[in-house]
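2024-03-11 09:14:02 DEBUG pipeline.ingest accepted 1 chain
2024-03-11 09:14:02 DEBUG pipeline.ingest length=290
2024-03-11 09:14:03 DEBUG pipeline.predict start
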Amino acid sequence: MKVAVIGLGAMGAAAAGNLLRKGHEVRGVDVRREALEALRAAGGTAHESIGAAVRGADAIVTFVVNAQQVDAVVLGEGGVAQAMEPDAVVVQCATVAPAYVAKLAETMQARDRLLVDAPVSGGVAGASGGTLTIMASGPRTAMTRARPLLDQMGAHVHDFGDEAGAGSMVKTINQLFCGVHLAVLGEAIALGRRAGLDPARLLEVYGNSAAASWMMKERGPRALAEAPPANSAIDIFVKDLGLVLDAGRELKFPLPMAAAAHQLFLSGSAQGKGGLDDSHLWEAWPGAGK
């Protein structure tokens, strides 16, 4: 399959690498030259324009940061909607608001273009290993085209029906879980450090107790590292928990845990730590030390 990956950040690059190893022809687009060079080194084809990458592709996978970037790459001048083949399908993996995806799907349908709502979870390791959890929804024609690719990208592909936006609502709730777990992890590490305890010993204890979680197992080693690469930055969860709270407002549903976690991520961002890996949220607590 010929696959164009738009956005070669941590997740997009990892997903592209997985698809290359599985024998697909992968083209990539990113604004960063080093990301394009890394794709070339892995055996992919790098393009500086979306049109060049998308033309002739069977599927286009978007791994960008937010709805504004999705709009720019999909609906913008020279973007995916203009350049894609009539029988190709867009697999939209960015974490965005469910209402936004529903509107995007309507716009794409009006242009006779296929789109699947397919946000993912599982981190860089899941993207690289093809073991992502994928929360998909969209018209049956689009889903039929996309399903073979989704099965190559993820080990747990869940189909939530014809309505684009349903998958993104599931991902929104997923981010409620993730954001709260990360906030608790940060608070626990900060408290332990303030008490003069060794964080590595603490994570060894809690990782083998009832306190353990996927987030602790995945983020814990990075929380102990001096300056880990930002596979998922604090500012990403400022955005994602904001989407959770927006969903709650739209549904008139209280979300006190999400609100508290959002404030903690906002505090880290306000202190100039928004670009740090989210495993280092503990640095936002006064007195936690480094």
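2024-03-11 09:14:41 DEBUG pipeline.report The chain has a mean pLDDT of 96.
2024-03-11 09:14:41 DEBUG pipeline.predict end
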